[in-house]
Design a protein that fits this description.
three-stranded antiparallel sheet; binds zinc ion
Length: 236
Amino acid sequence: MRAAPIRCGLAISARQPAAPAFRGEGGLWKEFDPIKVASIDYFLADPSAYWRVSRERGRVALAARPNPGHIALAELEASGHIEAVVTQNTDGLHRDAGTKRVIELHGSGRTVECLDCGRLEARSDVQNRLDVEMPPRCTSCGGERLKPTVVLFGEAMPSEAVREAFELARRADVMLVVGSSLAVYPAADIPLTAVRAGARMIVVNAEPTPFDRLAEVVIHGRSGEVLPEIVSLLSV
Ligand SMILES: [Zn+2]
């Protein structure tokens, strides 16, 4: 890697889409089509289908902790090497790891919004009452349309987050791409925008990605191992 000073580094992270994991062990998932359960039309028709799945899976998701890759990105931000992390993940782990500027293109799974009165509530609080309340009700208006603040299938990405991500991409001089599931547009356009504007791209992923041919550096490896190594190389 060249030692030129970085004016604006940007990292974009994504992991494999959640849907295949839905089909893994746990017969529950044979019962529900994940695409349906996580689509806005289906959700509005029957929020309890979403929340019944969440009752089983949500606790595990909420218990997840940042891995060394999340922590390394937070360190790269703290040391001024990257300005922000743009992510498709909704698990909140970049913030937990200490990254200050996180742009969540698909929203956050940590909060729940009442579609009737707009009240926001911590996901963990809603999660805690799923055993006794199905579907969960708004603690303010009693409504039954509590929706996690994530982008469901059929919903638009939050426009402010998209605008901010593209603005950063246009002035980035380094674009660090972590993870391979950036196949969803417009997220995939963010690194392309950075490259078109002159940024150098670094790809870190275990498998080849569609971005490899545009990258100045491609590192095939696990982000949880490669990113901490980058941090330690930069700090010597
Ligand atoms: Zn409400």
